[in-house]
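Example 3.2
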Amino acid sequence: MNDKNISRRDFLKLLGGGIAVTAASLTGCDSLKNTLTDDTPAEEAPTDKMEYRTDPSSQERVSLLGFGAMLPPHFGDDEDAPINQKRFDQLVSYALRHGVNFFDTAPEYGRGESERVLGESLKWHSRQSYLLATKMSNFDDHSLQAGIAMYRKSLADLQTSYIDYYALQEVSDLDSVKSRFVENGLLDFLQTERSEGRIRHLGWVFRGDKEAFEYMFSLGITWDFVQLPLNYCDWQHGEPLSAEYLYNELERRGIPVIVSDTLLGSNLSQMPDFLVARLKEKAPQKSVASWAFRFAGSLKNVLTVVSNMTQKEHIRDNIITYSPLHPCSDKELKFLEEVARTYAKHPLIPCIACHRCMPCPYGLDIVTLLRNYNKSVNEGNVSSSTQDENYRKARKAFLVSYARKVVPERQADHCLLCGKCVPKCPRRIKIPAMMVRISKYVEALKQDTL
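Structure, written as tokens:
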């Protein structure tokens, strides 16, 4: 979007103060129909060239590409259908055949079905052929009993007697860390499980503030890994802490990094046209997404890069990128920072479409609402006033998209400001406030009073 259409200042004025806006966006998966066939001509992924990293504590080889099982609600073809197990089996088998051996899930993923579905897919393969990662997602009940029950259910659903990489999910702020993991004795229990071999590596997923980050090291525990959101936009521009700072701190401490959110949701694969053109000019035959994966893989202390891949063509593209990896040169890193600085000017809502805010008790389609808004920003269809040069075109495009993407009873004006979604959001988005502001913006467009 051209800066003259809407500046960052105009955007903040338009949506109101008090909202943290970063260069993040939303994700979502396109329809999965016809995505598991080889009908579309594409470069074939090699089966014997996957890049591997060595885990420093176990000396095991870990595929640089990790398979993420954060299944979207419509992996069963529509939001209400059960997850398509056969389709998922095919994805898992394809990944294994092409050298991927790291599989990441969590109890909350895939409407609570991800661990079970992944366990069903992996039971057909030798347990020694893959590494399994899952998490402690005790967001609602912080009791020791609930945490132990969640852990044991993970083992049962995954049909395994041990977990290779077990993480405390969403280390964010000091109070929640103490309540969820420390004061209830859960962390002591998990350390015992590690000492007895049922957990082989113990770590945590970080999305939070510096106080919580430093507190984890003050506990005197030997951490085997930390999982971080890491991409070339957040590298220097991440909030509240840059990915560069977090990565360097972990490297200094000798703790390997597992990478997530490589694409800022799916935003670094669905960029504005003028940025796509710049990336394609540098590497015409490579996908836009491959730049983000090469960036993450170029960091030597990265153990694996987890990608939530629900379409075969995406798995193929990522496998090609890492089979083998061609690290980014200094010149390419400088180029990506230029892209990141340009991208940071775009006033996007920092949603990563993790769906943790869903379901809304009042039926709002929160993720689609945020996704559609960000897509409109990327396409230049969000205006600051009726005097904007392309206002009429942008107004029509936004309203048509809004009506098509979200049915009336699930639109932003149905938000009752209950706030139940807010503590679930890893990006700390003030979701009710965003619903109010999107609703007001839509109404202003309808009334032509912007």
